[in-house]
Amino acid sequence: MNLLLIPGFWLDAASWAGVVPALEAAGHRVRALTLPGLGSVDEDRAGIGLADHIAAVVAEIDAIGAEDGPVVLVGHSGGGAIAHGAVDARPDRVAHVVYVDSGPLGDGGVINDELPVVGDEIPLPDWSVFDEADLTDLDDALRAHFRAIAIPQPARVASDKQVLHDPRRFDVPVTVIACEFPTSTLRDLIAQGHPYVAELARVHDATLVDLPTGHWPQLTRPADLGAAIVAALA
User: Fold this and answer.
1) Strands (E), 64-124
2) Torsion angle, alpha carbons of 231, 79, 28, 209, to 10
3) What CA–CA distance (Å, rounded) separates 86 from 169?
4) Where's the AB hydrolase-1 domain (predicted)?
5) pLDDT in tens, 121-149
6) Contact, 54 vs 83, CB < 8 A?
7) Strands 29-32 and 153-154, sheet pairing
8) Which residue in 81, 113, 119, 128 has a CA-CA distance of 20 to 30 Å to 1?
9) Where do the H-state alpha helices sit in 42-182?
10) What letter would DSSP give residue 81?
11) Residues 6+ apart with CB under 8 A from 30
């Protein structure tokens, strides 16, 4: 299959380096993406919004010919919302979506408009901004590595509203790899009709998988994350 890896906030294509070997060993064609505004620390991020990130992923989907086989989107964190927007734009071209500690963001929702903004961007905040569950297994060395590779996020990507149109997005099978919260919690939220999982609850074929760690499994458990993605697509 053709896998497009969509990073979460502050990360570029290289952040998937520890995950890619397992995917390629399983025979998948893999392309990790660097989204607009995330090319370098010095890049201009003014005017880059959620729709621009979705459009970048849609362009990657369109570049893969139907004769080249199915397209799978793998979205981490905020990249999950971007993946879902791309599925809404191309529901007939995406065969599966894997949400890595994330999920589909419904129409009118925002990824996170509470992060501290500086001008047109959101630098990686102080660790105190995150919950303890986010930081599980992210030891001092990994925190230093993350901060060294972090690129400020275009501010509008976090606060722009998701715009969706096509109900066929619910026909695309998904796998949620749950890290900081167990799948039992997600199932309870779905059963309760919680708005946090309202869009996920409408997906016709959803599989929930546990991978206990913090919010950045591509840094804390990359090989296990790769194996989980391979298993989801087997």
Assistant:
1) 71-76, 94-100, 121-122
2) 0
3) 9
4) 3-225
5) 999 999 999 999 999 999 999 999 999 99
6) no
7) unpaired
8) 81
9) 50-62, 78-89, 140-149, 155-159
10) H
11) 3, 5, 20, 23, 24
Domain 2-233 top-level CATH class: alpha beta
Domain boundaries, the chain: 2-233
- 90 with 63: CB under 8 angstroms? no
Residue carrying structure tokens 């791309």: 86
Q: Which residue has the tokens 């590595």?
A: 145
Please give the helix or strand (H or E) that residue 38 lies within, else none. Answer: none
Backbone torsion region of residue 181, taken as left when φ is above 0, otherwise alpha when ψ lies between -120 and 50, otherwise beta = beta
Number of neighbouring beta carbons within 10 Å of residue 61: 17
The pTM of this model reads 0.97
3-state secondary structure of 97: strand
Residue in the structure block whose two tokens are 């570049």: 63
Determine the Cα–Cα distance for residues 11 and 124; give it in Å rounded to an integer.
10
Q: What is the pLDDT of residues 144-182, one digit of tens each?
A: 999 999 999 999 999 999 999 999 999 999 999 999 999
Residue 126, Cα to own-chain centre: how many angstroms?
A: 21
> Which uninterrupted H or E stretch holds 111?
none
Residue 66 is predicted with a pLDDT of: 84
